Amino acid sequence: LLNPLQTISTLPLDTSAAPSCAEIAVTPDGRYVYASNRGHDSIARFSFEDGQLAKLVNPNPGETPRDFAIDLTGKFLIVGNQDTDTVVTFRIDHQTGDLKATGFVAKIPNPVCILPVQL
Predict the structure, then answer these.
(1) Are 69 and 80 in contact (CB under 8 A)?
(2) How many C-beta atoms surround the C-beta of residue 69 within 10 A?
(3) DSSP letter (8 states) at residue 38
(4) How is 50-80 classified by DSSP, letter by letter?
(5) CA-to-CA distance for 91 and 117, rounded, in angstroms?
(6) How far apart are CA 109 and CA 39, in angstroms?
(7) Contact 78, 63 (CB under 8 A)
(8) How does the average pLDDT of the chain come out, rounded?
(9) What is the longest distance spanned by two Cα atoms in the chain?
(10) Could you give the CA distance from residue 32 to residue 13 in angstroms, rounded to a whole number?
(11) DSSP 106
(12) What residue spans of the chain are helical by DSSP H?
């Protein structure tokens, strides 16, 4: 049996969007957690502080971010946006967990799954 230690929304307090998360991922160093919000068109970002999650800023990657993944190096977050038919990338700031758009946008119809591979 699991006992929750904390409940925290992935949505900003000032939104009326319905919660509709699709993916959750943790950076390889375990410092940051990200979750996609399909109804809000955002990526929620959290850091671990004293054993609890602290909510940070929500960047907007496109419409209906369905799936995303953190690359194997932990440097990039790659997002598939269902309704804009795009895959976009963000650079992860190792010190803050901030996501900064790289400017890379690939047009891909209905991206469903993002799976980084080592080449």
Answers:
(1) no
(2) 17
(3) T
(4) TTEEEE------SSSEEEEEE-TTSSEEEEE
(5) 17
(6) 19
(7) no
(8) 88
(9) 44
(10) 20
(11) E
(12) none
87 secondary structure, DSSP code: E
Q: Is there a contact between 43 and 27 (Cβ–Cβ < 8 Å)?
A: no
User: For the whole model, what pTM was predicted?
Assistant: 0.87
Q: How many whole angstroms separate alpha carbon 116 and alpha carbon 57?
A: 24
Q: Are 70 and 25 in contact (CB under 8 A)?
A: yes
pLDDT at 57: 64
**Sign of the four-CA dihedral 37, 38, 39, 42:** positive
Q: How far apart are CA 78 and CA 71, in angstroms?
A: 7
Dist CA 112 CA 3 (whole Å): 31
Q: In 10 A of CB 76, how many CB atoms? A: 17
Residues 74-109 pLDDT 10s:
999 999 999 999 999 999 999 999 999 999 999 999
- Which residue matches tokens 């671990």? 48
